[in-house]
Amino acid sequence: MAVATPRKASLPTEYTSLLPNPLDEHDSTSPDESEDTSTGHPMLAELWLLFKRCVPVILAYTLQNSLQTASVLIVGRSSPENLAAAAFAFMFAACSGWLIALGGTTAIDTLASSSFTGSTNKHDLGILLQRGFVVLGLFYIPVAILWAFAEHIFLFLGQDPVLSRDSARFLLCLIPGGLGYIYFESMKKYLQAQGEFCL
Known about the structure:
One of its GO terms (molecular function) is antiporter activity. This is MATE efflux family protein. Keywords: Membrane, Transmembrane, Transmembrane helix. By secondary structure, the chain is mainly alpha-helical. It has helices spanning about 40-75, 80-120, 125-150, 150-155, 160-195.
């Protein structure tokens, strides 16, 4: 009586195929592959999986940038001066505040991904999120002070007094939204690290 010996798993090399052979019965299917393989061809199945996962991310980024787009469109219909003030204020906000939020949450993205996949304690991911809230919230305090006194800074830099006044008023209204933007970015990275892409 012949005893079946298990096949040795070969180590992957640079010549190993990234997509499994669909005819190989010994490969176990992962949960991602079992989502939808009705297309037949492995490359089409992979493209369909990527499409399903990227649509919610695209929608999230579209909604994220809709604040600036909608504000500029609405303000731009009132007068060219108001459009200039809104555009100038958003440019200053992006350079001084939004980039801090994006840079800080990129660190959360890196740490959260490695914590979720490599750590035995999954609660570390929540601790990273809480620390991100606190640290980025503390970094936002000087930004909020800078925005509150932006008119003086703009005048010091030689900007038009009317543009400086209107842009500073616009930035004053953006101060509460900046903290919400930081929390939104942190939560987005927290969910993406766990593979949660659905809206």
